[in-house]
Design a protein that fits this description.
Length: 436
Amino acid sequence: MTKLLIQKLEQIENAFYLSSVQVRELAKKLQTEMTGLPGQGSLQMLPTFMQLPAGSETGTFLAVDFGGTNVRLQLVELLGRGQYAIKKQHSFRLKDPSGRYDFTARETTGEALFDFLAGQIASFMEGTFATSLGLTFSFPCRQLAANKAVLLHWTKEFQTSAVVGREIMGLLAGALADRGLAHLQPAALINDTTGTLLTAAYSNPHADIGSICGTGHNTCYFKTKEPAMIINMEAGNFKQFALTAYDRLLDSNSRRPGTQLLEKAVAGRYLGEICRLILLDMVEQGLLFRGSIPALVRQQQTIDTSELALLAADNSPSLLHIDRWLAARQNIHPTTLTDRQVLKKIALTVISRSARLVGATYIGILQQIDPGLQRRHVIGLDGSLFEKMPGYLSKVRAVLREVFNDKAQSILPVLTGNGSGIGAAIAAAVCADRQT
C-alpha cells in the first residue's frame, strides 16, 4: 500500500471508530433523552400500553403480520412455559405482480384494503377456530391503548386513501364483522420491535429489552415505573452522535434528510451505501481501482448487506472470494490484492461502528432502568445483522463488556426470531388475560 492510501485508511478508521469514552458519552446522552419530556429529544418514547407476558399464557391466537406489501397470517398455539407451536400459516400480497389489484395505491380506499385483508383471514380460518388476534402493524401510529392506534402516516410504498388519521383496529374489526367473523376480536396492535421483546419474555422472565437491526433499526424496553408498560423508543431517530462526511452525504441524498440518523448509520438498508460512498471518495482520489470508476462505485445502492457480509467474512490468504465477487457480480477484473484488502477493511470499519453504536444505546437503556446493574437482563434481538453479519453480535457483546466489565455477565443478548408473528399472538394473549 502507498503512503497516501495508508493515511486515507487511517483517516477513515478514525472517523468511524467509537472509543470507550465516546460509547459512554453516547449512552449518557440517550439516557438523558429517555428521562426528558416526550417529543423534546430525537427519541419518541411512545407508550404501547402493553405488559410483559408471564410465560404461562395458553390458547390459540391468530397473528397478522402487516409490515409491508406481503402480509403473513399464522395460527399460533401458546402452550405455556414459554413454548408455542405454529399450527398453520399463509402469506399473500397486497399488490398483485400481474397488476390485477393494488391495495397500496392512492386510488384504493382503506375500506377496500381491510375488506381484502378480512377476506384472506376468513379463508385462512376455515376449519380452525380462535377468538382473538394480534396485529403487527409496522407503520407510524399514535397508540391509544394496547388494541387501539391511529395511523399517523404511511411509509414504504403505501398510499392507500382514507386510512391516515383513522383507528386501525376499528377498521379491521368492522371488516371482520362484515365477513361473519365478529367473534374474532382484534385484541392487540404492536410493532415488530415490541413483538421481539414479547417473544423473548415469553420464554425468559428476565427479558426487558427488544431490538431489531436489519433493514431498519429500533429498540423498545419495559418501563417498571407506573404506569408500567413497554416503551417504543423509535431509537432509529436518535441523533446525538458524531456524523462522518459520508453519513452527511448519505442523509442529504435520502428521502427524509435529518431524520432516522442512527438508523442510517447502523441498519442494513444503509451500510452498503456508506461503503460505496467511501469507495467513491477513494477512487476519485486515485487510491483504488487504478482511478477508474466502476458501476459498483458510480451507481447508488449497488452494495447490499449480504455482499457486505461477504467482504467481511473472506479470510482466504488472497481474498479470493472478494476477487470472484468483483469479477462475477461487478465485472471488475483483474483487481489487485491491495484493492481487495481495502474493500474488506472498509466493510469491517462500517460494520464495527454499527455494532458499537447499537451496543452504546443498550448501555444507555440499562443504565436508566437498572443503574447499578443489580438484576439480570435479556435483550431479545432480531434482524439480518444480528443473524447473518459475521462477528456483529460478538462486537455488541464486546461493547457491553468494555463498559460494565464483570457485570456484563448479567446481560444476555439472544436471537429471537419471528417476533412479528409469535409476538402478535403473545400480545393478544396478554390482553385477553387482562380482560378476564
